[in-house]
Amino acid sequence: RIGATPALALALLPPAISEWTRLYPDSLCELSSAHSRELVQNLLMREIDLALTLQPPDHPGLSAQPLAQGVLVALAPLGFWPEHSRGQPLALQELADAPLIGLSSADPLSARLDSYLKSVEPPPRVSIAVQTYSLARAMVESGAGLALIDPFTALGASTANTAIRPLSPPLPITLYAVTRAAEPPPHTLASLLEIFARQARAQLDRPL
Question: Does domain 73-170 sit in CATH 3.40.190.10?
Answer without folding.
Answer: yes
